[in-house]
Design a protein that fits this description.
5-stranded mixed β-sheet, alpha/beta, 11 helices, 337 residues, homodimer, 6-stranded mixed β-sheet
Chain lengths: 337, 337
């Protein structure tokens, strides 16, 4: 475990770039001396930000990249054309083995497409899923896949289940994680064509602790640790989590402002409430890994601030130390092929 | 508008049957003299419940049915075998024209399957969608389809959009309702195969006010009035709404109990908060209609209490008075075929 973890960080990606990205990188290296960060992006802008901080200069290096991929750009085209963008330059650092991992708060599409096109899939992995941790009543669960690969096949979902199990066990530290497939009823015969075909395959998987179907209603309760679904469904789940949460909290705040009595009460409950709701925030869990690539690619929320960037960088250390990709090779592929 | 609306009500369905169902029926007829309710189920049990109330005896009639379909029973089998169940007897009242509508808090599967098999689809309607109203920041939206018909085709979704528009306009009273399709991004080229194929068809539909894609995050904000999706996705959305809401409210309550200060605050905010959150509860909107049948079938939540049963019965009156099925025939089918 004496080795450095080398992380390429997209200094130009996200709503708060480069300021918060650079700040997060500084905080990460100040937290852990075994990290080296390569900040990709416009040299001058990054230098200006770095100038404000004290840190070990050996742990941060700037890699100049003159272009920036915008969120609205069609991803495949952007990755192909903008060879000198902060995302493409960073992905090439991972591809060439100069870095172990890549963290970006930039264009989701470009990160997902670029990860596959440039870093490439581990041999035998059919599709790399995007797998964020989502908060539950009892802790968190891995939602796999929320990525760009819609219309998955049953064999993809089986690999997602196995990769998700490896991740929850080794990175999050949940022994024998409970795996469930998102379905519209608890019974085995329920579901759409994809789920009906996948269910018996998961049931016959000795490598995972498959507990059956999970209805969307039970996801927030913490009923399962690894929640397997096709990316279109996963995207709906992730974004609705965010949407319903935001609306309800807005409603709670508005409700507290309706009378003088409730306003006084609001002042009293606010600190405790803030603390409790923090534990149910999607932002608390850092970035979502794109699993199954020859290297680690982590996508963090577009609105990420320094703390999320820092957490995402630190997460790369665990990923490397736990040899996740080796475990994926051992547990997901060999028994499949 | 002088005509009676005749509603068959499943007295044995749901967690609180028959007590809350019978109570809801009594409240509905006491509220509106133009309703006649036919309570189907075990005569003796229903009589005992009815005995507690004062109401116009001409407005409630018991239709004996000796069997009950349980929630866990496979629906198709249950509908075929239990000919004397409260659900099958009630559906036959609609089929034979003795009733205009059917309301049940019982087995969703049996109600959906039975509605199609017994009452039957309007000629030209490919699939009858289940379309609940869900709360949003600004009011409510119709989520269409949350039913049992997964793996829909594009033409089904187009009919859902048209039926949903008719319903929102005539029953809820939203002029020119905004129709959106659930998608994983805002751009037209995003989506799975189904959405990509359906999008241009909706765009070319002169009968509806199509506003494009809606991401799950924006559903609770009230961005659209009619939210079109395939039933598997719709089921996820409906149940996650419920799940995230329940978990967050539990968290808010727990947060308020963490200190003496917050406990005092909780006492002060509670009444105002309760009122505000009530507006964001799924239960407030009565039952979900199964649209496109030769009659109206309304499925209410399994945990329904009298108020929801009453609201669901009253909803049948609007449905009949507004001649929704005639409008569906005029606006959805004729231009299609």
């Amino acid at each position: 475990m004496d080795e450095m973890t080398r992380v390429a960080v997209d200094a130009m990606g996200g709503d708060n770039a480069p300021a918060e990205i650079v700040k997060g990188a500084v905080e990460a290296v100040n937290d852990n001396s075994k990290i080296k960060v390569y900040l990709t992006g416009r040299e001058k802008e990054i230098e200006r930000e770095l100038g404000q901080y004290t840190y070990n200069k050996d742990q941060i290096e700037i890699v100049n990249a003159t272009e920036v991929i915008e969120t609205a750009e069609p991803p495949v085209m952007a990755i192909r054309k903008k060879k000198d963008s902060s995302i493409v330059v960073a992905l090439n650092l991972v591809k060439n083995g100069k870095c172990d991992a890549f963290v970006s708060a930039g264009s989701s599409g470009a990160v997902l497409v670029g990860g596959q096109l440039i870093v490439g899939r581990i041999k035998g992995i059919e599709r790399p899923p995007l797998a964020p941790l989502i908060p539950t009543e009892t802790g968190c669960a891995l939602l796999i896949d929320c990525g760009a690969n819609v219309d998955a096949r049953p064999s993809h979902l089986v690999q997602f289940a196995k990769m998700g199990s490896v991740y929850m066990e080794s990175v999050v530290g949940i022994a024998n994680p409970r795996v469930a497939i998102v379905n519209i009823g608890a019974e085995e015969e329920k579901g759409n064509a994809l789920v009906k075909e996948t269910f018996p395959m998961l049931k016959n998987c000795p490598e995972i602790n498959f507990i059956g179907s999970i209805e969307a209603r039970d996801i927030p309760t913490g009923y399962a640790d690894v929640i397997v679904c096709e990316a279109f469904a996963g995207n709906i789940i992730l974004k609705l989590y965010e949407g319903v949460g935001a609306t309800l909290i807005k409603k709670v705040k508005a409700g507290m402002m309706t009378s003088l009595r409730s306003k006084i009460g609001a002042l009293l409950v606010k600190p405790a409430l803030k603390q409790t709701l923090k534990g149910f925030s999607l932002d608390e869990y850092g970035g979502a890994p794109l699993l199954g690539l020859n290297g680690l690619v982590v996508k963090t929320h577009g609105s990420s601030r320094a703390v999320e960037i820092k957490n995402s960088i630190l997460q790369c250390v665990t990923f490397k130390e736990q040899k996740i990709n080796q475990k994926i090779k051992d547990k997901v592929i060999l028994k499949d092929e």
